[in-house]
Amino acid sequence: MSAEPDGPEDRLRRFTTIWSRAVYPVTSTSLTRAEFEEQLLPLARRLSGLLLAHGFDADGAKAVGAALVGAHCTDPEALTRTLDCVDAYLVLYCAGDGPQDEPRLRCSRLQHAMAAGYAEALRERTLAEQESIAQAALRAQGVVAEALHASEARFRAVFEGAAIGIGIADLDGNVLQVNEALLRMFGQSDQALRGRRVQDWVHPEDAPQTWKLYDELVRGEREHYHLEKAFNRPDGTVLWTNLTVSLLRDADGDPQYQLALMEDTTERRLLNLRLRYEATHDALTGLPNRSLFFERLEKALNAGDGQRFGLCYLDLDGFKTINDSLGHAAGDRLLVEVADRLQSCATAPGEMVARLGGDEFVALTTGPGTERKVDELAERIMNALVTPVSIDGRDLLVRGSLGIVEGPAGERTAAEVLRSADITMYRAKSAGGNRSELADPEADARAITRHGLTTALPTALERGEFFIEYQPLVHLGDGSVRGAEALVRWLHPQHGVLGPDRFIPLAEHTGLIVPLGRWVLEESIRQARAWRERHGEETTAGPLRINVNLSPCQLSHPGLVQDTVDILERAGVAPDALCLEVTESALIGADDDLLKPLHRLAEMGVDIALDDFGTGYSNLANLRRLPVRILKLDRSFTRGMQQFPADPVDLKIVEGIVTLAHSLDLAVTVEGVETGAQAEQLRILGCDTAQGWYYARPGPPDRLHDLALVDATG
Q1: Strand pairing class (394-396; 255-264)
Q2: Cβ neighbourhood burial of 503 (10 Å; 0-12, 13-18, 19+)
Q3: CA–CA separation, 480 and 286 (whole Å)
Q4: Using one digit for the tens of pLDDT, what is the confidence trace for 47-97?
Q5: Measured between alpha carbons, how far is residue 596 from residues 5, 125, 591 in Å?
Q6: 469 with 489: CB under 8 angstroms?
Q7: How far apart are CA 303 and CA 621, in angstroms?
Q8: pTM > 0.85
Q9: How far apart are CA 13 and CA 244, in angstroms?
Q10: 468: Cβ contacts below 8 Å, ≥ 6 apart
């Protein structure tokens, strides 16, 4: 039988029970524990909602913290136990069964906001108590003038019984009286404190206006003031207080004494400092985190004219492999060691190292001469990674890719600087890694444009921004048009017409190549049907055929064959009207499973062409097992034939390929034919068909129709 709660409400009540049991012993309330638990239930429900909300509601979390003060949880231990309980159990009981990383991060932020709300509410409550005591003291002073004995008794009761420290001094600053609470706060005897002067309590952390306000008060120019002040204790520790100082006047209204009310806020301040540290530092490495780094970077970028900055963005090469092979514990130890080494590289004034997350680190240098300093910092970082890191008896070689950005302050935002560094780092990684690269504005612009195109691709297909141009395939023997290759274009709203080299790699990377390729195939088949319906057998070689390129992603997609069959059947076009072009590089090392779709399509009557033949370094023996009927010879082999006389080496290569192809009953198509001499030479060598600007550039489908009619009519 499971001991876990059955539903969300049961889980919520279980969390509330754990919370109430932890906090109730340190709560000043007349409620029973069960009643106190019911009082916490709405707060727990609100925390659960904040944890699962779409956005982060800091004010809501602050309100929960403030509500604790309203529930008489004013002992600092109550806050500590609450935060421990939220950290340990809120995600467990309220986050559901999905991934835990995002709820964990949200829970941490909720704790910080709760602590802030708790501190604000507790401060307001204390100020109210202080004001009440101050008013009581003032009233007591007024009563002294009318009835000395009665007022002295009442004032003494307030003075001695107060939970906060109270001290009275004359206008010269001599301490006259202190209560027990103040003695405990300072850790001194009554005689020691009463021998002090107020002016002796100057502290380096005093706010600039502290002693100006004091002078105005003792001169009778103000009635009271309130501020945060630090005091040195005899044991060397620092006492932090909320200090309220009021002026006491005699019956005639003349200044007579000064009354100080002190609340010990040392523990609260330490808690806030701890929360601030945790919010701005990485828990694993102890380095500043992304939040603190951005604060420092923005400060450097807003430093004013003439100031410069330098930034190094480091990403470890192959870190995922270490995590996958040795485990995350080993990966964490590696990150700690790398963080220590990086920290030792940035010790000069104006330098800092931070961890952005994962295996990404940044180093910042500011001040004069950053052009030289950032290069030196980058060199120290790369040198620090040279020595292997020993983890569990294994020496791990650490490599890193480093992007460097340097420039004047005030020209770019922090986000723009970090984006440039990130782009530069990936440029170093693409170049092989274990190196550094300097930011290049032109390279940044290209990367940003590439990213923009990637994000615009899905909606571009939905909005119909793609169109197809057709380049004719001409028979070299009789000059007849045998068909055309479909070439997709993108009419981008900002960049104009883009060729496939600009967006096809992006589509392959994102997987959009499958729906885009399906659309190209469907449009091309529809166009092939239109050509056949318009001129049927009017050409000398019969109906025109359409060639469509097939990407590696499409080739491995399980729906390729069925999609092709469905498109052909819907269009009412026979399979022999279609030729699918597959690049040679896509078939290098292809196994039988990858070739099955091509074999099935070939058996149906679809022609398969091996595109860019000669560039993939494939074994020629592989041609025997490929369902290929056409070899498309890459233009690099025929470029030497554009001039007369032709390059003899190119002639021999092409002649050998043609002979091999024909011996295997394969046709040969040549790309990139640009001159008549080139076309004639290829005809003599026995090539079957060709395409290129010599015949026609890619264009609209009607142009191919016109060319076919010209061919038919002679």
Answers
A1: unpaired
A2: buried
A3: 74
A4: 888 888 888 888 888 898 888 888 888 887 888 888 888 888 888 888 777
A5: 52, 77, 9
A6: yes
A7: 67
A8: no
A9: 43
A10: 486, 487, 488, 489, 520, 523, 524, 527, 701
